[in-house]
Amino acid sequence: MIRLHDYWRSTAAYRVRLALKLKGLDFEQTTHDLLAGEQRADSYLKLNPQGLVPAIEIEGGVLVQSPAILEWLEERYPEPPLLPQDLSERAIVRAMAALIGCDIHPLNNLRVLTAIREEFDATNPQVKAWIWRWITAGFDALETMIATHGKGFAFGDRPTLADCYIVPQVYSARRYRLDLTPYPAIVAVEARANELPLFAAAHPDRQPGAKP
């Protein structure tokens, strides 16, 4: 049995939930309210010294950091695959994922937003402008990549790791009311994915601890 430590609104945890669902794996969830600081409890820091979500408990240990967890899931449970067979195509999917995981999300996560509020006295409009700046920069590139490589999903005609990153990031963009009109390919991927029950089941609103 896999135990996922997550928070309903964490986009990094959302990625892992999607992969677990797409792989057809049973898992239990333990939620940690990030706003209440539960991720810094001693009991959780013993599992993940960084005090972040997600983490997964598996037989033999604990895995942290969503990219590492997703790669482990792909190697441990190769069917159904979330990466193409072709080596170059696998690199393209990983690049789409990294565009979000390395260049958008780290600049917009809770720790960074808290820091610019507390240490630089950023106002709410300034924080929103910061968020929009980095999502827009990434989405501008991602839109072109999907238009080139997508056939219903971000790459090809079935879900890949790229979709596990994109769908949560679009959720975040909607949460911060970013205008998605310039990104029809990204929006189409989100719509197609959310038609699938497995994607719908991983949505933040359906997770333990979710709030209106």
Summarize the structure.
With 212 residues, the chain is α+β, with helices and mostly antiparallel strands. Helix content is 54%, strand content 8%.
Topology of helices and strands:
Blueprint: E1 2-6, H1 11-22, E2 27-31, H2 42-45, E3 55-58, E4 61-64, H3 66-76, H4 87-103, H5 105-108, H6 110-118, H7 124-149, H8 161-175, H9 184-194, H10 197-201
Structure description:
The chain has 212 residues and is an alpha+beta fold. The protein folds into 2 domains: 2-80, 3-Layer(aba) Sandwich (Glutaredoxin), CATH 3.40.30; 87-198, Glutathione S-transferase Yfyf (Class Pi), Chain A, domain 2, CATH 1.20.1050.10. Helices cover 54% and strands 8% of the residues. The protein contains 10 helices and 4 strands. The chain has a 4-stranded mixed sheet with strand order 2-1-3-4, covered by helices on one side. 35% of the residues are buried. The model has no long low-confidence stretch (mean pLDDT 97).
